[in-house]
Design goal:
It is a single chain. Helix content is about 30%, strand content about 25%. It has seven helices and seven strands. Strands 3-2-1-4-5-7-6 form a seven-stranded mixed β-sheet, sandwiched between helices. It is globular and about 40 Å long. The termini are far apart.
C-alpha cells in the first residue's frame, strides 16, 4: 500500500525534489519510490538507487526501464558514494530492518550535502505499525526515539509529512519525516 501512496509525499507541496541535481533512493527495493522520483526530478538530475538485494535491483530495472537511474548493489552501512554528494535522499521502509539504525543513518548523513534534505519513512509503534511489524518481521519506532537517533546522526527534523489528511488524523502510514543536514 505504501508504494501507491508514495506519490502523495513525493510532490512539490510535500517533499519537493525540484532543483535537486543528485538524488538517492536508499534501499530502493523494486523501485517503488524511483517511479515518483523520475516523475518529479528535473530532467538533468542524476538519480542513483541502491539495494542490498541483486534480485530487487533487477526487479526495479525491469519495472521502470529508465536509463536515468543508476542502480548499484550496496550495503547501507558502507555506501560507495563520496562525502556530501547528494542534494536529496529518499529512504523508505529500510531502517526498521536494521538491528541498529545509527550506522546506516550516519552513512546517509555522510553522503548528504550540507543543506541537503532526506525523506525518511519508517514503521511507527502504533497498532497498524505492530501489525506491519509482525507481517514483515521488522521493528517499529516511536517518534521520540527516531528523533533522538536522527539527531545523534547529525540530522535535524524539518517537518512531518503524511500521505493524506486521514493518515494524519488517525496516525496511519508510519513516520514520514523530512530531515535536513545543517
Amino acid at each position: 500500500g505504501h508504494a501507491l501512496l508514495a506519490g502523495q509525499v513525493l510532490k512539490p507541496t510535500a517533499f519537493d525534489i525540484a532543483g535537486c541535481k543528485r538524488i538517492l533512493d536508499a534501499g530502493c527495493g523494486n523501485g517503488r519510490h524511483c517511479k515518483y522520483i523520475l516523475r518529479r526530478a528535473d530532467h538533468d538530475a542524476h538519480i542513483s538507487a541502491f539495494d542490498l538485494s541483486q534480485r530487487m535491483l533487477k526487479r526495479a530495472h525491469r519495472r521502470l526501464k529508465s536509463r536515468r537511474i543508476q542502480y548499484i548493489a550496496a550495503d547501507l552501512t558502507r555506501l560507495p558514494y563520496p562525502d556530501d554528494y547528494f542534494d536529496a535522499i529518499v529512504c523508505g521502509w529500510v531502517l526498521e530492518h536494521l538491528p541498529d539504525p545509527r550506522p546506516g543513518l550516519r552513512e546517509l548523513t555522510r553522503v548528504l550535502s550540507p543543506g541537503g534534505k532526506m525523506l525518511l519513512m519508517t514503521t511507527e509503534d502504533t497498532l497498524a505499525g505492530s501489525m506491519s511489524s509482525n507481517l514483515w518481521h521488522c521493528r517499529t519506532y516511536s517518534r521520540q526515539e527516531l528523533r533522538q537517533v536522527t539527531q545523534e546522526c547529525g540530522l535535524v527534523w524539518h517537518r512531518p509529512l503524511y500521505f493524506t489528511r486521514l493518515h494524519r488524523l488517525f496516525k496511519l502510514g508510519g513516520i514520514i519525516i523530512e530531515l535536513r543536514r545543517p
